[in-house]
Design a protein that fits this description.
By secondary structure, the protein is α/β, with parallel strands linked by helices. It has 15 helices and 13 strands.
């Protein structure tokens, strides 16, 4: 497998002081259950170059698991972050833009109404995407990290409100030849999504259900048991554990939980993406990192340089999901990705934009009510 540094190249940042190329950039916005993230990038050889990014914890899914609705405080936080995103986009000439919302807006009875208000206030048109598309976009962004020569990949994304699982066929030697394709054709094939699964267990939903219980041994184990029970449906359909015993199956995690575990396993003094993205952890390293995080307690998690106070309550719920995945599918190693929906969106936009199109400027913030409307 290539080194993390070489795998980072398609998603590199410009050298200090180098301005972005006007009119050739694309933007992707991901409004999740916990975070609002924006990424702006310009095409580069083999991938893209990041020219702007923004991330804010908004906790849009706060209270959703109990009420079924987005609460006013959460919507206010999210709208404030989206205004910042809209203002940043308004300063750029963009060839393509896509904004998506995930589990919180999918589940909330007032999710669509909130996004209509967002469009009225900011001009941002945000699509609620399906769980399948969420899995597909994660796969799109992580494709460069998939091992050549393997047969299958089990990709997992532990989000704020849900966890997506993607079961992927690789185009390595021998893969798919039973379907009549030659080895050369298969080797050149793109990774193929052959199964996906979504469960309504994410770091925010579990944190709200469990409260402080996740900081106890019994509470943590109960969470692992509950999540594993939900994932067993997918295991029964695809018999992934049997595939793992036959070899050639890779487990790849893309989420804050996976990257936090990698930071702890690598004993980093602070979070450093080039060392995380593409890192390969042994099963023993995963177990040791889990034990370290569980032993820290909330104050220790808040003080940890790879976590911080804003994320301290969500780390152990995410670790419970991770532990459940590892219980069912104990591969010898886990590959960690610091990339996800936004990168997948950008790659799709760039790949599909094969013909010249007029430059366009994103609508200025301050439309609708802010501009004097009703």
């Amino acid at each position: 497998m290539a080194s993390p540094a070489s795998l980072l190249a398609p998603f590199s940042r410009p050298p200090a002081g180098e301005p972005p190329v006007s009119g050739h950039a694309y933007a992707a916005l991901d409004l999740g259950t916990n975070n609002c993230r924006l990424l702006v990038a310009a095409p580069a050889q083999g991938g893209f170059r990041v020219v702007d990014s923004y991330s804010r914890i908004v906790r849009l899914g706060e209270g959703l698991d109990h009420s079924g609705r987005l609460c006013p405080e959460a919507m206010t936080r999210a709208l404030a972050a989206l205004r910042v995103c809209a203002a940043r986009l308004a300063r750029r000439d963009l060839r393509g833009v896509r904004a998506v919302a995930t589990e919180a807006c999918r589940r909330a009875s007032n999710g669509a109404a909130f996004l209509a208000e967002v469009r009225n206030e900011t001009g941002l048109a945000i699509d609620i995407i399906s769980t399948r598309e969420e899995a597909e976009l994660a796969l799109e962004s992580c494709a460069p990290l998939l091992a050549r020569g393997g047969r299958r990949v089990l990709l997992f994304d532990i989000g704020g409100g849900s966890t997506e699982i993607a079961w992927v066929r690789l185009g390595g030697p021998g893969a798919g030849q039973s379907a009549g394709r030659s080895a050369e054709t298969v080797a050149d094939a793109r990774p193929e999504l052959i199964g996906y699964f979504s469960i309504p267990y994410g770091v925010v939903t579990l944190a709200e259900r469990l409260g402080s219980a996740c900081f106890t041994a019994a509470g943590f184990q109960a969470a692992v048991d509950e999540v594993a029970g939900r994932l067993e449906v997918f295991e029964r359909i695809h018999c992934i554990a049997k595939e793992i015993t036959q070899g050639g199956v890779q487990l790849l995690g893309t989420s804050g939980t996976a990257t936090t575990l990698a930071g702890v396993a690598l004993n980093l003094p602070r979070y450093h993406r080039p060392q995380i993205d593409g890192a390969v952890l042994s099963g023993a390293a995963c177990e040791a990192a889990l034990a370290t995080l569980r032993a820290l307690g909330r104050d220790g998690l808040a003080a940890h340089p790879c976590i911080g106070p804003e994320r301290a309550d969500f780390v152990l719920p995410g670790c419970a999901v991770f532990a459940a995945i590892r219980r069912l599918w104990p591969t010898g190693r886990v590959v960690v990705a610091d990339r996800g929906l936004r990168e997948g969106i950008l790659l799709r936009l760039m790949r599909r934009d094969n013909t010249p199109s007029p430059q366009r400027r994103w609508p200025r913030a301050g439309r609708g009510r802010a501009a004097g409307g009703a």
